TrEMBL record:
Keywords: Cell cycle, Cell division, Chromosome partition, Coiled coil, Cytoplasm. One of its GO terms (biological process) is cell division. It comes from Sphingobacterium athyrii. This is SMC-Scp complex subunit ScpB. Residues 31-58 form a coiled coil. The gene is scpB. PANTHER family: SEGREGATION AND CONDENSATION PROTEIN B. The keyword Cell division applies.
Amino acid sequence: MKDVIRNIEAIIFASAEGIDLADIKQILQEALAIEVSREELRELIKKIEDKYRDEEHVLELRYINNAYQFLTKAVYHEAIQQLQNHNNKRKLSQSALETLAIIAYRQPITKLEIEQIRGVSCDYSIQRLLEKKLIKIAGKADTIGKPLLYATSQQFMDHFGINGVRDLPQLKDIVTEDNAIGETNE
């Protein structure tokens, strides 16, 4: 039974979001050919909850929104908040900002198209933007090699406080007379 408990623990830990009893039960059946009733499953999960109540663990098993998930215990929230603040302070480089602007205005767009506009490789910038979840993979192009298409993400919209691409500033709103090159004759 200990092996079943460890598998349940691993399933809950590996799920990106909370996971409900029905999904845990189905995964146990499909992966391990183990048949457990909902009541047995609740008892096994209760044992995992008891295990994580111990002070030596920084995580706790919580039941939130009809699903189980591991969360950091409240006593560590201040340290986690500092980590998030630290990560948010890391600014994007100029090249990442340029890449993001190109993606925002030309989406969906391939890496090759971005590189043709910028004139330099943008592998690192795209990777950083994906890590920060400001862009997402929007599919594959219908061209030779089926390159990935990139577009802005919902987090991009949230971060910049816009509802959609139509809310991005237009070029006419950005360009001013001060940006003219050379002398102007009146």
